Amino acid sequence: MNQSGVKQAITQGETSLGIEFGSTRIKAVLIDNNSKTIATGSYEWENQLENDFWTYNQVDIITGLQAAYSNMKFAVESKYGVTIRTIGSIGVSAMMHGYMPFDRTGELLVPFRTWRNNTTSVAASELTDLFQYNIPERWSIAHLYQAILDDEKHLPRIHLITTLSGYIHWLLTGKQVLGAGDASGMFPFDETTQDYNKPMLNQFDSLITSKNYPWKVKDILPKTIMAGEQAGTLTNAGIKILDRSQNLQPGIPFCPPEGDAGTGMVATNSVRKHVGNISVGTSVFAMIVLEQKISNIHQEIDLVATPSGNPVAMVHANNCSSDLDAWLGLFREFSEALGQKLDSNELFEVMLEKALDADPDGGGLLSYGYFSGENITGLESGRPLFVRSPESNFNLANFMRTHLFSAFGALKIGMDLLTKEEDVAIHTMFAHGGLFKTPVVGQKIVAAVMNAPVSVMNTAGEGGAWGIAVLASYMKNKERDEALEEFLDQKVFNEIETQEIHPDRFDVEGFKAFMERYKNGLAIEQTAVDYLTPTNLKEDPVKIQ
């Protein structure tokens, strides 16, 4: 579409807006009716560890929303000379799950507890036994039950618990709803009824009946809505929150709010059976759309749903790129100390490409990028760690390859259960996330991890914000009874370029050797957790006399 065509689309509202709250960035993406990106805006933010909980400040949530939208709006005005006054449809996405309880007045009763917290192990274990269905520690119901076990004071006041995407959607539309994908990470989901699992709801209520809370669990969960359905409209109150200039008009339709897992599936066209995707960022998760549910309970494998409500097996690791990013930051400091300021993309590309020159197994080096706990490997908290022996081949190439391998170590443990013990076939694996902005390297590593072909689309860098914009467009522009899979195939990805890389035998064998070292070395990481405690770190440093 040419400049005048884009300008006309903006002024006539032939657009869709996606807003996603990622773990390090809030992003707004405006697309046209052909799913082409018109403009983007973003806001950098970070979580904090407060009172032993990973959280984001509630003020930062609103500030970041406004900044991301404002930056996108400014980009439109600068490039096209028009002010956004209407949008065809809007969608909100955010980090999955977590815990946000509210009272009847809309007051957040405890600070937002994110997916990153490993504080619900007792609750998750008890609920898994009760339901005979895996309940991960980060799921909302695990957080709620752990609060009950801990007898937290806010519980009788609860009117609603929701996720971050549900909260933002509620602010902008007044509707307390959630898309199927994000809802399936709050409470077990039944794809036949396209709602929360009713027998398990009853089991939970029976479990806590002695507490005499003035609510039933079904009543405090947001209503579930499938992809393609309208989930509310922008209100006057929502305009004041989203658009500080208040140029927008009320009544803009919203699609169901979703988690970043669901939007990642959409962004990679991974909603068909036997198709999978891997999302790489602060955390990493792989998702495979199932033909039927897996037969056994594995704490390493979550059962969730696509935005259309179809069953999905998900392996989620809390830690991925944070330690690698920290090391690259150190190398940046070194280059700047030498008077050489490198562009971020240039630095990443140079450093990541060194991994292609490494020994297949990383030269005997070992690292754990555990900034937080990791449920797959049984670590309640984390300590980033790098280890080598005197015999290791310590060079830059092996250093970079080791940190890339380590980023997927915990994920691999879960994926092996899925593919080897449950015989889940993976026909195609799509990858997305910032790692894949550097050509080839990330794909080769992930192909070795999955031992399967890995494809990257030229939309991979857009991520979930683009994915939720596409879901908003699907709601507005789909034909009657047109399935999400058909819409994506025929109207979104029909002209998108894809680059596929098959696993290299040497990379696969090298990663297998690394994983043996990774598993054997977990005791080292546990020892670091045991002896390098926050209390130790806060003590005054030893003074040299």
TrEMBL record:
Origin superkingdom: Bacteria
Alphabetically ordered keywords of this record: Kinase, Transferase
CDD domains: ASKHA_NBD_FGGY_BaXK-like
UniProt cross-references to PANTHER family, sorted A to Z: SUGAR KINASE, XYLULOSE KINASE
Organism: Marinococcus halophilus
GO biological process, one term: carbohydrate metabolic process
Annotated Carbohydrate kinase FGGY C-terminal domain residues: 277-474
KW Transcription regulation (keyword) present: no
Pfam family, one: FGGY_C
Protein name per Swiss-Prot or TrEMBL: ATPase
